[in-house]
Structure formats: structure tokens, C-alpha cells
Amino acid sequence: MVAQRWAKTLEARGDFTAAAAQWREAARLVEKTYGLDHFGHLDMASRLAAARARTPGGRAEALALADALLARWQDRPDTRDRIPALRVLRCDLVGDAQDAAAARTLLARADLVAAGSHREALTRCAGR
Fold first, then answer.
1. How many folded domains does the chain comprise?
2. How far is CA 7 from CA 31, 53, 88, 94, in A?
């Protein structure tokens, strides 16, 4: 919890490099304590990917993390509220035909749980 709080503080200050280090530590601790299949790891690793996407030279790692997390979690019905943010991140990083098709698929789901900003970003991505 300390790493998460510190990461959020650093993000608020605009220091995404230091925030990424704290998200990495939070993800490591969740993995060590609960394993890779724990929602906490999905959340911490997602935040790490988002932070790395905003750092110099971090886009490749952010994309690799987003791809790995989507491969592991996107088909699980219990994560439907977490996937839109990851899909939007991947679309912002790459924005290829695969992302557009996946965004359209997500938007067509009746059980889609997405914040308004994520829904708008998915719609933008789907139009590519």
C-alpha cells in the first residue's frame, strides 16, 4: 500500500519515471504475496504500463506489459471493468487494425463496464 500511495503522489507531481518504479514494486509485492492471477497484480501492472507509457523510452515496455496483461486477462468475465483502460492504452501506443477491431468488439458487448472517458477513447480507437 505504501508503494501505491507513493506512486499516486509521484504521478500527481508529474514524475512518471519515479512513479513507474513504485508501481513496479507494488506489482512485484502483489505477485510475491498473491500470485500473477490476483486482481491486484493486474491493477498494479496496468498502472505500471500507463506510467511507463509517459516516460522517455518507456513505450516499448508499456506495450509489452499491456499485451501480456490483455493476453492473460481480457477473456475473463470478472475483469470486464479493467480491460477497457488497457485496450485504450494499447490503442494510444500503437493504434493498429487489431486495436480497432478489439475496441469495436468491446463496445458491442452488452456487459461492457467502462467510464465515459474510456468509452469515448474506445469509440475513437474503433474508428481507426
1. 2
2. 17, 15, 21, 25
Long-range contacts of 116-123 (CB under 8 A, 24+ apart): 118/84, 118/85, 118/88, 119/84, 121/88, 121/91, 121/92, 122/84, 122/87, 122/88, 122/91
Which of 7-21, 60-74, 88-102 bottoms out in mean pLDDT, i.e. has the lowest?
Answer: 88-102
Instruction: Flag whether pLDDT at 48 surpasses 80.
Output: yes
Claim to verify: residue 50 and residue 32 sit in the same structural domain: yes
Residues 1 and 45 in one domain: yes
What's the confidence (pLDDT) of residue 117? 84
Question: Taking a C-beta distance cutoff of 8 angstroms, is the pair 125, 103 a contact?
Answer: yes
pLDDT at 73: 93
Q: Clarify whether residues 68 and 45 are in a common domain.
A: yes
**Half-sphere CA count of 102, side-chain side, radius 13 A:** 21
